[in-house]
Amino acid sequence: QVKTSLLDLTNSIGSILPALSRPANHSRIFYAVMFDAGSTGTRIHVYTFINSDSAGLPVLDNEMFHSIKPGLSAYADSPEMAGHTVRMLLKVAKKTVPRLEWKRTPVILRATAGLRLLSPDKAQALLQQVQHVFDESPFLVPDDSVSIMNGTNEGILAWISVNFLTGHLKAQTQTTVGILDLGGGSTQITFLPKLRVSCVFRSLSSCSYLGHGLMAARLATLGALGAEGTGESHINSYCCSYKRCIIHTTVSVSSPGYAGYKLCYQEVLKVVKGIIHQPYQLQDSNVFYAFSYYFDRAVDAGLIDGVQGGKLEVRDIKKRAKEVCNKMTKYPPISSFLCMDLTYITCLLKDGFGFKESTVLQLTKKVNNVESSWALGATLDHFHNLKIH
Ligand SMILES: Nc1ccn([C@@H]2O[C@H](COP(=O)(O)OP(=O)(O)O)[C@@H](O)[C@H]2O)c(=O)n1
Fold first, then answer.
1. In a domain, 5, yes or no
2. Where would one find coiled-coil regions in this protein (predicted)?
3. Is 128 annotated as a binding residue?
4. 217: domain range?
């Protein structure tokens, strides 16, 4: 758990503008290119900002977003393919940023769980390929432009993104929203805990759990982590909605004849157990924005609209998990892992983080047409060090 002074944070964000020090007659528009090298895909965010007249936050005018699957870690044994992926995505940046602005537009790549889970030499070889592509590009390549980000920073930067986009970072705003991010390899929870009387200033609480992202949790639940690459392996799981669920080319999972929420919950609980929870710090009034796989699976389960998103209580996810696992729905689940995924999400929220069944989640993919992701916070951090390191 990392604690960061929120006062430091918001004061620093407030001084982003002077730090940019642009020539007086220069256009008020500026650009930044941020790559998200995630475990399941690589994404490019091209941001267009407008400097505000006051010494406040810049205005985010537009985001161009594009993604490619799989993630860079899939090329651990052929790193030049990682370079190719980034080169392809850079074409989006060239189309979006005017040519005259290229040399002053920073390009940055931050990698998350996929590279954290690789051996250091393999991860380094991938990063070197990316660095090479950046160095060849016409964009501005800052120091430390390519690196692996740590999990707590990932959570803090996502918190900054969502609170920036929802207007909660403005000086006059008293409240903030928490964030829940469920990636493929890791999961993050970041929020402003209840003020303790003795506290001088408020601190952000950010926790990241490597190996508790949705894809990693599937493998862990099935005890299949060690089975990868060791030849074919068969596993029985109560969470498998079909007769046969393929998880990996060499690992197949069968249903023991019946699936069921209760038995599946016991399976996923083994993975969630051990996650430190902090129920005393969560306020009833804490609103949590949940995105990534929280959003994707809620859409797959028919709980929210895929464009609008929506509000859900923890108990709504639990109820749908029961329906899917106990085959109480009219339609077969579109993914053979929907029972496991919904049960894992329910278990993570309740037994992992100590959420009540009545806790409200705001399921969100985009806020004002901008991706809910750590990438925007990382870009703001680049323009002015937000003292989160
Ligand atoms: N800008 C983004 C980034 C990720 N995601 C989703 O986040 C999930 C996985 O995130 P990830 O591959 O970055 O996982 P980690 O490397 O953070 O563990 C996938 O469902 C992505 O589609 C998204 O919807 N929008």
1. no
2. none
3. no
4. 156-367
